[in-house]
Automatic annotation (TrEMBL):
InterPro entries: Nse1, Nse1_RING_C4HC3-type, WH-like_DNA-bd_sf, Znf_RING, Znf_RING/FYVE/PHD. It comes from Sakesphorus luctuosus. This is Non-structural maintenance of chromosomes element 1 homolog. Its EC number is 2.3.2.27. One of its GO terms (cellular component) is nucleus. It is found in: Chromosome, Telomere; Nucleus. The keyword rRNA processing does not apply. It catalyses: S-ubiquitinyl-[E2 ubiquitin-conjugating enzyme]-L-cysteine + [acceptor protein]-L-lysine = [E2 ubiquitin-conjugating enzyme]-L-cysteine + N(6)-ubiquitinyl-[acceptor protein]-L-lysine. Its main location: nucleus. GO terms for molecular function: ubiquitin protein ligase activity; zinc ion binding.
Amino acid sequence: SMAALMTDAHRRFLQVLMSKGITEASEARKLHHHCCETDKVYYAKDKLDDFISTINRHLQPLFMQIRKGMSEEDGRPYYAVVNLAETEVTKMASDYTETELELFRKTMDLIILSENGFASSTDILNLADKLKTKKMKKKEAEQVLKVFVEDKWLSEKNGEYTLHTRCIIEMEQYILSNYQDVARKCNICHSLAVQSQVCESCGIAMHLPCVRKYFKAQTEPRCPQCNELWSCDIP
């Protein structure tokens, strides 16, 4: 079959997505509509995923892809443009110094090794003066963390840092292969779970939105894996 043609509407859509880095699905749907109208091509309302897979076929030789993921906080779906040729750190390497990258990797270690998917700014800043590449002063490290948040690699709430949705969509494979013993997949949606609840009895993990959805239908919250009572507070 003929591969579907990449129209101006597809190109326009891709450009906007690339400039944003990450886009909420509801925004992407509006953008899909807008691009089709602007370029006077047929707009099929529920066909955003088809529209995107046409773009993805054309992106294949460039080792890029538009991927869908979800916010671990509220379960909302997002789209991000992912570079498949470069794993996380190489992609970031063009934007940050070696020292900044080391701080990012160490922060990522803390987040992924934590119970709940967060690392406190205190713990991160304590790493800053132990970096191998070059010690970083606290003030400087705080500034770098701010930039990681602005660039959507980290997100921050009340002095606690976690991986931004964009970072998770972009680096899921990297994290699963580099943190094999500790990275957890959600028992419900089977994608990487950083911010999660973990069963005290059998150790499975679930995203908070997946926990909410799953237990909504249950009379008493029992682990989907071992059937023990769920030990965490349901969000």
